[in-house]
Amino acid sequence: MRRTLAVVAVVVATMAIGRLLTDHLPDEERLAAPFVRNGSVGETVHLRYGDVRVTGVRVATRLEGADVVVAAGRFLVVDLAYRAKGEPRRFLGLEVRDSYGRRYDATARGSTCPQNLEGLTGIRMYAMACFDVPRSALPGARFRFSLGDYGVNGSGQRRDDLAEIDLKISPGEAARLWSQNLTYRATNGTATGPLDKEPVTLAKPTWWDELR
Asked: Whole-prediction pTM value?
């Protein structure tokens, strides 16, 4: 009888300890989450491997690069200033998240905007990241910048710094931006000085413009 009671006591204690650990230890997803550093347009976000600042936000119907590329929705153009720390870096994580948590990767259409960025140690660099998004993605959109790409379920960004920058697009501002019919000159590289942000006029209309 005593042996039975002792076994029961051990089982109950083990279950209690297990419940305590379950209730108080972070789950696997939290353990693997990136270290998110928050910021806003115009603010510099400092990361382990560099720093980044969104210098402006634009919306375009078309991007003019090697060819003219027409957006399925609109191109959300995020202008960046960034710098690598410690050593030259390649920044693979460029994405936008909307207020619903949906992810949008930098567009790979044409040879217009970059899908990743090169960084020289200690040198301030400038670039543009472009995302083809629907109208619903504009209000509350946030830009994410990281050393690793998203990978599978965020595997490329686990346990590392990640900048998340509020683009400050209100519903009213989103409606204004969406109504514009603008073309911007795109570059798929980086520069050591600010990029040209002025709209351009196409020499001839695209097939999309002829349908409008």
From this structure: 0.80
